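Can't paste images in this forum, so I'm doing it all in text. The chain is below; anyone willing to post the predicted C-alpha cells underneath?
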Amino acid sequence: MHTGNSETPDANTQNFGVVYKKTIGNYYVHTDGKVIPCALSNRLRKQLIYPTADPHSLRPVVQAVREIEHVDPVAIGDQVRYIDAQDGSGLLVEILPRRNRLARKTAVPMPGAHSFEQVIVANVDQVVPVFAAANPAPKWNMLDRYLAASESLDLATLIVITKLDLVTDAQGRVDADLLEMVAEYQRIGYPVLLTSSVTGAGIAELRQVLQGRTSVLVGKSGVGKTALLNKLQPGLGLRVNEVSQVTGKGRHTTTHLEMFPLDFGGAIVDTPGVREFGLWNVNEDDLALFFREMRPYVGKCKFGLDCQHVDEPGCAIRKAVTAGGISPRRYQNFLKLKDEG
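Text version of the structure:
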C-alpha cells in the first residue's frame, strides 16, 4: 500500500522504521535505536478504487475512495515511512511492500457477513509452533494445521517441544513415543528442537536459530513459553506474558500486539489470541500441496489434478499411505482439514 508525498512538508522529515508495537490508534516504530510513537495518516485508512475495464481504454485515474473499516492496515513487523512531528512523535504515511505475512480470517459478526484477511505479523522469517512434551500432552493434529497454514503462506517453520524434563527418565532416556513423532516430522523435512527450561536442554540451539530472525510463536497457553523465553533472555517471558494476557482474549489480537527485540539479535512475537490461525483463502483442491510429503504425488493420480485423494481409484497419495511413504495419521488430518474447507 502506497501513498503520495503531498503530506510530507519537507523531504528531510521522512523517516523509515519497523512497527514493533501497536495499541488502539497508536503505533510504536523502532528506528536508529529509538522508539517513535506514531499516529496513522487518514490516507492509509482509504482504499483507492480504479477502473475495472481494459486498462488501455481508460486513463488510470481513481474512480472512488473507500474507507478501510474492517481491518487495521498496519501490522506488527511492517516497514513504514513516517513524518517526524518534531516533538518526539510521528505520522505514518506509507507501508512498504511486505515480503510475506502471517494472516487469519476475521470473525463473522452475523449470518451473511463476510470474513476478511487480518494480517497479524508482516515480514516473518519463521513460524515457531511451541508444544509441551507433556502437561499438556501435545496435540499433533493442531501442529499439522499450523504447518499447513505456514506452507500456504510460504513461511519457514521451526517446531519447538518444551518440558523435555517431564518425559526424560533418571538415565536420560527420552520417551520413545515422543521421539517417534519427532522423527516423523524430521523425515518430512521440519526442524525440531527439544528443550527444557528446567535443565537448559536445547536452549543454546534455540538461541542460535532465533538469532537475527523475526520469529512468530504459535501455540496454546500452558505449554511453557514463558519459562522458555525467560531462559533465553532474563525477563523476556514475563514481558511477553503481560501482552499475552490481553491478546489471548482473542478480540484484542490485532489491537494489542508487540514484537520484542532479542538481546542476541532478532525479534519474537507471541500470538496467543490467534484462535483462527489456519488456512486463509486456500482452495481445498490445493490442500495436498501444503503437506510436504504429499506434494510430490500431486498430479500423479489416475484422475490427475482432479483427484480429491479421498476414495478415488488410482490415487497416488493413498497408495503412498498404504506403502508407508505418508503417515496415516497425517493423512487423516489432511482429510479433516479438507472437510473443514
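The longest helix spans residues 140-152. The helical segments are 140-152, 176-188, 203-210, 225-232, 236-247, 316-323, 328-340.
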